[in-house]
Specification:
Blueprint lengths: L9 E2 L5 E2 L7 E4 L9 H7 L3 H10 L4 E2 H7 L4 H14 L2 E6 L2 E6 L1 H15 L3 H6 L24 H19 L1
Antiparallel strand pairs: 1-2, 3-5, 4-6, 5-6
Helix pairs in contact: 1-4
Length: 174
């Protein structure tokens, strides 16, 4: 006879329900669908040395947060923040087991990040060929000089340059 709560209770010798000790359930913490993550979120995740260290550690497989904490010189709240950013990017997934959180690289998210990097850094040759530069064919209007010299320095920029030159000269003589 059980209590009806699906908790694994069994009747004791006295007929009352007693709980059976079981491991807490494993909970997969759902990360975002990587296809829906914007580029800024993906590249923010990759733009921090601690997050890159965490990713490097995760290359060898799933790690408990306590293992990451021992290997990366940050506080527990900082680690939690960094892992939250990595999970939000879709590159890392987390799962909760009891009171511990385990992290692993999500291959779909990593593949998506690689695809987005390729997409935003690939030159569109067809568009580049069809595009006219501003100074081609007098496109920028009267007075445009395609061979324009660099902007002329103002008096204040000359004073700044002279000050920089004086500092350089002093360092060179000492």
């Amino acid at each position: 006879m059980t209590c009806g709560c699906d908790c694994g209770c069994t009747p004791g010798a006295d007929g009352r329900a007693t709980s059976v000790a079981t491991d807490p359930p494993e909970i997969e913490l759902a990360g975002p669908d990587p296809r829906g993550v914007d580029d800024a979120t993906i590249f923010k995740a990759l733009g921090n040395e601690y997050r890159l260290k965490a990713l490097d550690l995760l290359r060898t497989g799933e790690k408990c947060a306590c293992d990451l904490l021992g290997a990366i010189d940050v506080s527990q709240p900082n680690l939690s923040h960094h892992m939250k950013v990595l999970c939000a990017s879709g590159i890392v997934r987390a799962r909760q087991e009891g009171r511990w959180t385990y992290y692993a690289i999500d291959e779909r998210g990593a593949r998506h990040a690689i695809e987005r990097l390729a997409a935003i850094t690939t030159v569109d040759e067809a568009a580049a060929r069809g595009r006219r530069r501003c100074c081609d064919d007098d496109a920028c209007g009267p007075g445009c000089d395609a061979q324009a010299s660099p902007p002329r320095a103002t008096a204040s920029s000359h004073a700044h340059a002279d000050t920089q030159h004086e500092r350089s000269s002093r360092h060179a003589t000492h």
